[in-house]
Amino acid sequence: MSYIIEGATGPWELVIGLEVHAQIISRAKLFSGASAEYGAPPNSQVSFVDAGFPGMLPVINAECVAQAVRTGLGLNAQINLVSRFDRKNYFYADLPQGYQISQFAHPIVGKGEIEILLESGETRQIGVTRLHLEQDAGKSLHDQDPALSFIDLNRAGVALMEIVSEPDMRTPEEAGAYLRKLRTIMRYLGTCDGNMEEGSMRADVNVSVRKADEEFRTRCEIKNVNSVRFVMQAIEAEARRQVAVWESGEAVQQETRLYDPARSETRSMRSKEDAHDYRYFPDPDLLPLVIEQAWVDGLASGLPELPDAKKARFMSRYGLPAYDAGVLIMEQATADFYEVLAEGRDGKIAANWMLGDFFAGLNRLGRGIGDSPVSAAALGGLLDLLADATINGRIAKDVLEAMMETGEPAAAIVESRGLRQVTDTGAIDAAVEKVLAANPDKLAEYKSGKQKLFGFFVGQVMKAMAGKGNPALVNDALKRRL
Amino acid sequence: MASAAPLDDAVVRRIARLARIRLGDEEVSRLRGELGAILGWIEQLNEVDVSGVDPLASVGQATLAMRADVVTDGDQTEAVLANAPARAGTFYTVPKVVE
Q1: What pLDDT, in 10s, does the model give residues A46-57?
Q2: In CATH, which of 3.20.20.70, 1.10.260.40, 1.10.10.410, 3.40.50.2300 is domain A425-481?
Q3: Closest CA to A176 of A217, A129, A232, A130
Q4: In A63, A199, A286, A328, which residue has its Cα 20 to 30 A from A270's Cα atom?
């Protein structure tokens, strides 16, 4: 799928790469024994290591290493048995050490890839360049005092994975799909909760534009975008800005920019001029990180079923099209709900109801699958009534709406509201006669050859029966009578 | 190995700025000499052919010690803030740093 910006000098293509910072799920921090839990009182989860006190030494948390390896396995990536930590030097008030311990030259995870699903139903492979371990910084609050910034070091030293993509994406949609898929994979693995609002997953976006078949042009980096939607908007805004710069005869300068969602534009962060001069060097406090292949194999055998494998199984076991399977596996809870629903039922019908009326109902209520008023078993009860012809499809939609509102089971609603499908041919014939008698003009038109009025009569008969007629029997009765 | 370009004052000032060290003019020229001598020594090391030799990470302990994922530290806010130049409640405070 192509996404092109039409400039005054012709079409421009986008080139997009993403750097995602994902907070690792662990109890303690990457190099200290302080808690990594979110939301504690300021500076209550800080060890002297995190606060950069002189003489304190970092000791690595084995579980954080395991989480990085699990994520690497989930990205079908190369796991490097030997990696190393470097110091990335910069000064900022919430970085007490004056450097971040990161992995520059030798990351723990090398090349991998992520399959993304687009609205068109197409899939694409997006390359992952690397994944490395690093420390998070503390948190600065700038809105507490007119002259001061407040610093909370609870987050300082929490383990992060930085996951860098290849510049393989060409549209905002692909970038959005990449982020969602990466989040899905990490949530399945239990390595990151992927919560962008709370900042446990953050994205830096690299954008450049070029004419067809050109080499890459200069890129800009948009820092710290905190939702999938803003990432997509920031890419559009930045690409349009770059096209305007090139077409005015100027050159795009490589720089760091910020996205302002209120104005839908990006702005230069001039203060970061020196930001790329980090003077990396190997951290003398830490030996190389050496792990055993047997340990990696053990982690691999303990992984849950991953999204792509689940998707393939849904397609083969339940006969689902790729797109439906791809949507159902996005969230583990959705996939689990579907499996309960589809068990012993027609998989395609189950998927259609779930992705159609059921999700639409949840949206109306502003709820998710986790707090749905209708359980998978209850929705299954509705599908059973449909399958054994107790109710027809039209009525089933109404019953589902009532279930969403009241939380009552389908069978109870059908009984109490008298919604059973009418299969009594006598009742159907009576309704047919009544409709024909009421519409002599239409009947005459039909007889004189206006065949498409058949649908009108079906509708009128169903209406006369309050929607409860068996559609096939109504059709038969009308055909016989006309 | 070709010899590196000699240090000029601008490079010394840039390194100092990155390290947040303020230098007077005579300090710049003195450090230019000292840093130049250090770089010269490193260049001398670069003359040794080390192809095929694994990097030596440490002469001490051979492997990185690891820690279990257990909370053993923290809950010492007053000790952590004891040397803070300025504070408000249990936050450190610094002159405003914002874009």
Answers
A1: 999 999 999 999
A2: 1.10.10.410
A3: A232
A4: A199
